[in-house]
Structures
1.
Amino acid sequence: MRNFLFFFLFIFPISSFAELRIDITKGNMDPIPLAILNFNTKAIEADEISSNINTVISNNLERSGLFSILPKKLFFNETIPFEKKPVFSDWKITTAQGLFHGKLNLKNEQLVIEFRLWDVLSQKQMVAQKLVTEKGNWRRIAHVISDIIYKRITGESGYFDSRIVYISESGAKRDRKKRLAIIDQDGANHKFLTDGSYLALTPRFSPAAQEVAYLSYNNRVPRIFLLDLNTGSQKVLGDFPGMTFSPRYSPDGKKLVMSLARNGNTDIFEMNLDTFKIKRLTFYDGIDTAPSYSPDGDFITFESDRSGSQKIYIMNLKTKNVKRISFGKGKYATPVWSPRGDLIAFTKLLNGEFYIGVMYVDGKGERVVYKSYLVESPTWSPNGRIIAFYNQSKLSGGRISNPKIKMIDLTGINLRQLITPSDASDPAWSGLLP
Amino acid sequence: MTQGLIKSFFLHSLIIALFLYGAEIFKKNKRFEIYEIPLEVVDISDKTINKVDEPKKKKTKNKKEEMSFQPPKVKTKPTPPEFSVKEKKKKKVKKNNKEESKKEKKKQNRVSSILKSIEKIKSEKKINKEPEIEDDTKKEEKIDEEKEAKNINLGEKLTISEKDAIRRQFYRCWIVPAGAKNIKEYKVSIKLKLNKNGEVINSKLINKSNLDNPFFRTLAESAIRAVNHPDCKRLKVPVKKYETWKETILDFDPSVMIN
């Protein structure tokens, strides 16, 4: 009997009753159309703030390249009562796939905002939140709301509530003035941090985004300065003869990794910010430079010429094992580890042209996201989705354009320029503001 | 022990024989199944006669009347002068510019068409009528219906071209979250229930286990939006094969596109 059952268990499943199954392997990469409605307000004073917040949110999402903000003339109504569900059939006609609306109140200089985000096609609420802040913080709250919308739809954390520190350049090429400046990622709230009396280079944000480290060649001696953004005070971390790049902070903010040239040899060192002790990490007779930590702090990536040409390597900080990850033609430089942990951005020089590229941390999937006459200094947005860099283009008559900061999505789409008061180079993107 | 071995040997060899021979013996139908291929048989007459298509209401009495048709005279193609090569390139550039301006006009036309349809709906909202569908989509639906009517029901399975038609429909509806982390590792399966017109009555996500992963959720939501998109709410399926497609599973796989 048992054998008989065994026999049928093996035989009968041979003829299966397959249901229709179709694989969908192709779609499009169009931006998701969103409808951003005006906030419901009670006071006239709140109308202006409401309109400003609405504009910042729309600009943020549009500029990300992932969303398309629909013009208000397509809407049946410009506001929806906050307590009511939208009539989705009306919104489907406008081609909107997402719908944002809310209400805004001013209470004793406090801004109270409640909002909802709807999925129009699935007819479901995606997000509903209430935020309270001071009236003067309206711009930051617009960035926070943009981050919430971005995260809910894309699954990735946002990057709108962040800043970029960079080197502002002005003056003639022979007498170039370079000073430290800071700006919001959308180009607002620009501010100079140094007066330009000494050369400032390669700024870096601390993980808490409250301090900026930068390299200065005051009296031809390279020194690291730490600038506190809240107080404006500066202190010298130390003299570092032979340093060409400003050090990078570890993800926990307790260490700095840097390259130092000693006795004709450039190697990578790590400094403990509590003890100020320096530990040597590489021992190669050549140039090892431009190190950058992985998001977990267990690895660094750096450029080295140990193979005969500039290539990118990664090192396990526990085992000190070094592995080469770039194998393409050309010279590779300034590798920067993505905050997402999956990619490394770099600069590449090949056949007289510069590229900004990305590759996976194992070296696979190398691809170019931008190329130009001169591009350098890639820096990642806090969510590892956007790369900022500075570039100079070749103009007619053999002239070269002034340096400008540009941003591009890691997929290579949506190139944008960061509008600065003057020429700009060496950008460094902060994390999300606390 | 030996009996058990003998029985085991007998059963294993029987199973192997059945696999070699095939499971055909269990099918009620013929042993060697013929896979039917859709085929339309058309009688070809000895003479080809040019006929003019007339509307069905009007019946022609004199079928013998033939429309005389004179082909246009072939004109000799003028040979361009030697220096016109650059001009042709300029013309090409001008054509490209014209095409770009046409695309921009198309975009503007799309927005204005949406506005017009909204105005129509606003005016009809008081009477609580359903919004009218644009003329273009009505024409397309008629053409599709005519095609379906002409299809001969030669088998229950969907043909490759019928499946491709459904895939092509989703090119426009599915916005792939291309830059999301590790997105090519995920696949989303959605089960659809369709009515006889091919309209989606119900859609359900099958593989829900990864929903706590934000990137998988993003992909799942993009697929659900695609299935609920107005352009994909009604699938282009052959009406006569309803039993085959009334329950369909769509597997959304972004890896091919991203690779």
2.
Amino acid sequence: MKKKITGKQIWPYLFCAPFVFCFLMFTLYPTAYSLEVSFHDWNGFGDKVFVGAGNYLRIFTRDKLYWKAFLNTAVLMLLSTPTTVFLGLLLSYVLYRLRTAKRFFQTAAFYPYVITPVAIGFIFSYLFDWKTGLMNRLLQTAGLLEEPFNYLQSPAAIRLIIVVMIVWRYLGYYTMLFLAAMTSVSPEIYDAARVDGASSPQTFWKITVPMLRRTIVFLTITSVIGGLKMFEEPMLLFSGWSNAQAGATGGPGNAALTVMWKFYNDAYRLDSRLGYAAAESYVLFLLAMTAALILHRLTRERQI
Amino acid sequence: MKKERRSFRPLSPVKYAVLILLTVLMAAPVYVVAMMGTYKSERLFLGIPWLPGNYLAENVRTTLSHGFLRSVMNSAVVSIGAVLLTVFCASLCGYALARYEFRGKRLITMLLIVLLVIPTEISVVGYVREMRSLHLTGSYLSLILIWGANPFCAYFIHSFTVDAFPSEIMESARIDGCSDPGIFARLAFPMMRPGITTIVILIFLWSWNSYMLPLIIVNTDRRYTIPLFVSTLSSAFTRDYGAIMCALAMSILPMLLLFTIFSGSFMESISAGALKG
Amino acid sequence: MKEKSKKMTALVTAGIMGLSVLTGCGASSGTGNTAETENREEQSAAGDAAAGGETTLTIWDWDSAFTKHMSEYYAQTHPGVKFEFVNVSTADYFQKLQGALSSGEGVPDIILCEMAYRGKVFDLGILDDLTKEPYGLDPAGMYDFAVDLGSDRTGTLLGLEQQVCPSGLAYRRDLAKEYFGTDDPEELEAMFSNWDAFIAGGKEVLKKSGGRVYMLPGLASCAFYILRNQDPFPYITETEIDITGRYQNDITTLAQMMEAGIIMPGDSETTIADGFVNKSFLFYPCAPWVEKWYIAANDPEGSGNWGLMAAPGGGYTYGGTSVGIYKDSPNKEAAWDYIRSVYCDGDGIREAYAKFGFMSGFRAAYGEDSIYLEPSEYDAFFGGQELGRKYKEIMEAGLKGQVQTTSEANVLTAIGVALAAYDSDPSMTPEEVLQQLIKEVRASCPDVTVK
């Protein structure tokens, strides 16, 4: 270690300087500023009034909507992550054994991932619109539905739609990652399985899934952290195609309100309580860290 | 014996059919939106538009007159700026962390790891205020600077350098009298190119799709990026639903085109990025 | 040793850099502010010099046709005033305004407050009291409801109605003839003088049309909007929101309509647009602005086929936008002069009425020879009916305004949520709807008692 230190030690510092500069300026400073603001009552331009832990107390004691939003976010995550992981595994398993057109299907499945999430929310807001949406029109034309079903008024349906939206968006992405990981598994293992007379589902459960454990763990953790920040898809679901009533607060019973959406509402859209909103984002951060830690603990043994 | 051969036979036509059906299902939402964009508004409510209508030119004109090209330009400027800034900061930093021993290295490495799990959303309130102090509110820079310290990219380049740029090369280059910046620019950077490509693509995609910060910080439609353009469609195109659909379809077009052109390196990048991260 | 000291130097350099970044930032926010105030002063100096020179007024508006026309009209007689418009939709207005305020840049001189977010802007404390200098407006010249609508919770007048909204019901003449045998507004008004008659009539229509034609669309955006604004009174204090006292009766009437099935299900813009195309409803709430933004926009081929009558149970205000002046605007005098001319008592109000049907909230405009007895832009669309005369009639019969606050805005949002649930589940009882509403208000206002 000592050997590497030469007289030219100024360079690593210079090399790191731009990054560290940006970090101090545009990450650390605003993060610290937000923390300071979270102890104040402030509308963004008037005087800041120090309220101590008041904002945090209000979140933990009175603001039921915050916890409702957190619960919504958690439920959406719990429903969508396992579904996408499972379907992604299945699809990649099928694609892996495909001889022709593998690339085509892989690329096609991946397209939704590059679409702006805002547009995805918008598209789904049209598909599931009560009177004009494609889904009801199809079902009615096919005679499967007599009266149009008001998806965006049923909390269960709303959650389901958001889950479909997430699965639709991420399926291709997950599939691709699993495929990449599968390709790195040596084919001999599969040969061995064949010799042992394993059936296709057996190979899938006994070999593929365990071999992809790391990828699965990784995807689960990132999607939990990413899922906590969910915001634009549910929001556009209610304000995209049709400005449905209650669209600003997550629909009926606030079923689609996520924490970041509430943060945005409180800070900028429906109110201007920056201090309170900053506290909300810090609480979310603490919850996210806790979730990440728990997941890390649960999956630690086999991780490197 | 029969069994295992069956399991490794090429997929049956039925399975192909299922895959094709799945692909069609994945594509259907976008297809329908695009088709609706070719109709006049009042006709949209009369049936399901499976086939193109005759109103595309008119809808495209409406979309263009609402600043569509300007939004594409804005998004492009922001994304390219973000990519340049991130590549500059992250490649230098990642490289230094991988190939030098210096005091503070552990600190910076720790920092990167902590940063990886901190959501940037937490700094939004402060960042907006900071941009005000710097008189940058709503400028391109305000949307670009936030990408400067992207922990993922620095971390990615760090681990990529470890794999792709052996320290022996560095030592021998030094013996040949190369300066440190020279080694980085002429030797390391070219060898890191696949890694750089990955972060170029990822940052481009992420900054293009970024929504919350522009939503809060951009106050004039002159600076609208594509996601903002999309989210204000229904209020900007008062009740012109055909044009709304057309604009929506056009908004997702640039990324779909870019993806189609670069799909190979795109998918490699993302899998590389995700697996490393 | 030497190496080490070099290392230290580098570290210190880096540290200092980091520190200077932090302090630089802190300092820059200070200097930034001074620079800003200087900037403002310069601007206001320029504004003062504008007596002979030039002033630029910034206005944010969604109705660009109106602002463009009226500002050009105004500029003919005031060549020194230039306008800068920013097109901001009502949905984005509050958020964009808030953004401009906190960034300190680009705040408009003239701020428009649509009903949906008016209370919140009033509560931000960024608008000037119009009764004070340099404006010196006398509220006695205004209709009481307009004063109520333009005042905040302390009774300070912060906004003037850009146009008052004495509202009635627009109706389809062809359908009215078909189902009621007449399309004459007076006869229809006599037929539907109260909601009971309206509901009974609606049942008939429903039966005759085989369930295809409803009386009204939009449970919350139309039907309940009318009901709750026909007889508004204060119900919000600093510590309490009395939902039951304020809305119980309205919900009961609404429930009768729902039971009769005369309200078109699906309260969203697209469903209503769909209803316009398919002629699914007879009536639509109508204020002057609705003619252009809803009726003509959604039924472009319907010219001549619409009529306007007073609503059962009396007049109400439907929507509405107030105009106020930013308290830190450097161009207060110029802004005020423009507002006076276009919205209060200048010649601009005649132009605004003739071209857009906008009506002022000042009594002076409503005398014997009122300009509102003259024809306006959309008369032809309404089968040649004199719309101004009808609105004037509704207005003189008496209107009331609800004072706008943040809590009021929250309650409006909650009404949207609760009624959306009712819309999709008409089997809810009025009591359940009320409880749902109370629950929603509690969620958005956790700091006060809600009953």
3.
Amino acid sequence: MNGLAHKLVQVPPGVQCFVGEEARRRRRIEEAVVRVFEGWDYEEIIPPLFDYADVFASETLAAKTYSFLGRDGSLLALRPDFTALLAKIAAGRLADRPTPMRLYYSGEVLRYEPPKAGRQSELYQMGLEHLGGPGPQADAEIVAIAAECLESLGVNGWVLALGHLGVFSGLLAGAALDPASLDRLRERVEAKDPAGVRQVMRTTGAPVAVVEALVSLTTLAGDREVLDRARQALAFSEPATRAVGELQEVVGALTAAGLGSHLAIDLGEVRGLDYYTGLVFRVFAPGLGFEVGGGGRYDGLLARFGRPLPAVGFMLGLDRVDLLLERQGRSLAVSAPRAEAARGGDLGATLRWARERRRAGSRVRFEADGRTP
Amino acid sequence: MSLTVALSKGKLLSGAEALFRKAGVPFPAGDTRRLVVETGGLRFLFVKDLDVPTYVEYGVADCGIAGRDVLLEAGSDVYEPLDLGFGRCRLVVARLRHARGTESASTVRVATKYPKLTAAYFLERGVSVEVVKLAGSVELAPVLGLADCIVDVVETGRTLAENGLEIEAEVADSSARLIVNRASYHARRQEVSRLIETLGRACA
């Protein structure tokens, strides 16, 4: 770089700007995904960019939420996710709508991220929520829609890793774990660290069967047969067995629908425990080291807004989809068509000609030089 | 494409080599200066020990070997399916013999190579802390008055003793771990689980 740039051209960490080809690529991805959402008869919802901070009061996102004081002294926040907003709207503005409601969104969320490579503060999410529908049917529908999005984007080798939080919480029902131990346990299960799980549980006085079952969650991952193994390993726990049964029903339906080869089971997937209540899934694909998106069932959230409804949803991160497609060499990029130049000294005449070409559907670059002939 | 394994050329290298040889998994031979070595169907990356979790978290490497101390400091989102058993050490708080205990101080100044983990350790216990980040020879800091105490790894405790330090508290146990990228674990399931099983049998 030569010389010093003007002070005002600096960018704050965490923001990005897309130009031309990049912007076009992102639009194409969004169009492809939205077409799938519309195809499954979901209705678009464009929620506000900010709302009362209380709406977003999720434990995991609290530290990442940009909040600020409104002029009237109320605490407001820039949306750090869509799901809480949609739940609020479903319980308020759409309170009279019959269920199930099928809603989708596409837009930016804002999250504070400490300046670290690869993390943006502004993320573009495309997702949908199925509110008030019966369990396994809605779960299967959501996962099938996620699958179609990946197919229609042309992603190679994608895998949906499915778990069920009812397994973990079912095993812990009755074991009175203090919040700090629960946190450490969840973190060790998530890391698939059997020795770590054992170490956390050592001081809790939980029954051996429960400890062994929690340890087994770190290895209950793989093909469908994992669910049979899980049924045996967790048979002593009624709620955990029920959760495995629910997952089995959904996996059975998805397999019958031809998606079997894209499914993986992961009963150690316990992220978002303060939020998800049932099925959870993550989308992975070769070429990207982290998930492209994911979702799950969150039956507790709508009650916060006074309209208890079961709910399930998922979202794809546009930034991640774009990166993945680029790494796989499958970007949806198209270059802009060539433009016709509208040139001439007579401003009025050239403009008239340009408008005619536009009406005929041409891409026109207006280059009149404005000098009267 | 072959699986990529990130290793550090630091203190865990000999243990890693012994384990791979015992498990019958190919390992790059001899002292090479190359940073990427392909051998017997695996691609090895040689990086700095603190960077191993980063390479694995971002998926540049599918697997890696890192000490639990480094994982605690990096806070990376990776799977840790195997405790490999070698490279055992303890992360401890140590101070000069006969020095006042840190529990009575209002703010403790701590020298360490592990700033994040150190800050979290003291703050969780309700102690205000000032962390002085050093890249090495941490034991010198209390001797020269740069810090009240240190947080560092000890194996035998000899270096501590030779510098007039003693252990005040234990922060964590550490040993070498096999770490795996979350996407690779699912998207390259068969190769990854074969490696986990092979290494798991060798270190059992």
